[in-house]
Design a protein that fits this description.
single chain; 426 residues; alpha+beta; Serine Threonine Protein Phosphatase 5, Tetratricopeptide repeat; 3 domains; four-stranded mixed sheet
Length: 426
């Protein structure tokens, strides 16, 4: 909650922001049409890819509401190299691409982007979209498929920055409260990017680049085992809440990009499809994940890895009875299968069978090796059971064992255990 002094300061900031808005010259609506907005391409050369061309940008602008783009003075397509260096200071994950030497990150093998994808400068009405740097020899995707996917990515960034412009020029009309809190700017831009990508960008690409879109989706279908839509591959940028909190989201776009990164290491189509199912599972795309797994199991019903992953997916789809049948079958053949043992614990926990969970967790732990990631999963299941049974002295000993390598995580781990056990933390 805000204190009285914080509320007073906030009101002053709102007043200053509103006065600043009122002192601005009004945007002359209709003074500029999409064909007349200057578009500058500032950087070119080997490795530089402006995925969204001038023609793409104008076509998308012409499909947007007039109020969204009116007042934009210029659009720049550039590398933004100096800006990236300025903004990437202190970013531990930043890398320098091997072709241009710009700071940023790798989207997937052979494709590099800046840490900042685009900007909007309200004082100048300037929208910037930053180029990709590509090394065609390292990209797993065919060129046409890669380029149309990057168009989707770049045009999503473009409509995000246009949303910032629309927000800036229409903000006071929508309410003074928006003038004070920066998180509202990003919340609005993310929501409009999501909407305009689906309503404008995707239909435009499907109509204008039909062969390229088909090549992308067919490549995914062959190597990933499922026919998806272009919309599915588009990012869902809605992360910033109006209270300023940013949700940690692993989206379908993240799943796709990580899978493309893993693809060169896959030795067969089966392995590639399984890898995609894994990433879709992590993105909560359980229906799509299940479709791939069922296809794999149709080819090889004895594929234990896919069976266990299918059981895990079925649990998330509230099909626990089917999941339990699979788990029992796997453990009948492989009693020490760690992943299947973890799932049996999940099923017992979901049914709040705390005594059975405690006994199971002991057997589960005995089947794990010292370096196995499942060892801590078994300890967590034991801790949840002890917590639910209110055996707190034993619980503390297990928590100490869980966090022995990272003692500072004890409060977080404790909260998680109590939450799973359905107990209020004193």
């Amino acid at each position: 909650m805000e204190t009285a002094s914080q509320q007073k300061l906030r009101k002053r900031r709102i007043k200053r922001a509103v006065l600043k808005e009122r002192s601005k010259p009004p945007v002359r609506l209709g003074a500029t049409a999409p064909p007349d907005i200057p578009i500058e391409i500032l950087d070119a050369g080997q490795g530089v890819l402006h995925a969204a061309s001038e023609e793409d940008v104008r076509a998308v602008l012409s499909r947007m509401p007039d109020a969204a783009w009116q007042g934009i003075s210029r659009i720049q397509l550039s590398l933004g190299k100096a800006y990236q260096e300025e903004r990437s200071t202190g970013e531990p994950q930043s890398i320098t691409d091997p072709i241009i030497g710009r700071l940023g990150s790798q989207l997937f093998p052979g494709v590099y982007c800046g840490n900042v994808l685009g900007t909007y400068l309200p004082s100048r009405g300037l929208v910037s979209v930053y180029a990709f740097v590509v090394d065609p020899s390292k990209s797993p995707l065919p060129t046409a498929a890669r380029d149309v996917y990057l168009k989707l990515h770049a045009l999503g960034t473009f409509v995000h920055e246009v949303a910032h412009h629309h927000d800036n020029t229409a903000r006071v009309a929508r309410g003074r409260w928006l003038a004070d809190r920066k998180e509202n700017f990003e919340n609005y831009a993310e929501r409009m990017e999501h909407q305009w990508t689906r309503e404008i960008v995707v239909p435009y690409l499907e109509a204008t680049y039909k062969p390229e879109v088909n090549e992308l989706l067919s490549w995914v279908e062959h190597h990933g085992g499922i026919r998806l839509s272009l919309t599915f591959l588009a990012d869902d940028p809605r992360r910033t809440e109006r209270d300023g909190h940013v949700r940690l989201v692993f989206s379908s776009a993240d799943a796709f990009q990580l899978w493309v990164g893993e693809f060169p290491g896959c030795k067969s189509v089966h392995e590639s499809r399984y890898a995609f199912a894994e990433q879709l599972h992590y993105a909560d795309a359980y229906v799509e994940c299940l479709q791939i797994l069922e296809s794999l199991l149709k080819d090889n019903p004895e594929d234990t890895r896919s069976l266990v992953w299918k059981a895990d997916t079925l649990i998330h789809l509230d099909r626990s009875a089917e999941a339990e049948d699979i788990v029992n079958a796997v453990l009948g053949s492989f009693p020490g299968h760690e992943a299947a043992l973890e799932l049996r614990g999940k099923l017992l926990e979901a049914r709040k069978q705390w005594g059975e969970l405690l006994e199971h967790s002991m057997r589960f732990f005995a089947c794990t090796t010292v370096k196995s990631k499942f060892r801590k999963y078994a300890l967590m299941q034991r801790a949840v059971a002890l917590c639910a049974l209110e055996r707190d002295e034993e619980l503390q000993a297990v928590i100490s064992e869980i966090v022995q390598e990272h003692p500072t995580r004890s409060p977080y781990v404790t909260r998680r255990i109590f939450g799973r056990a359905g107990r209020a933390l004193a």
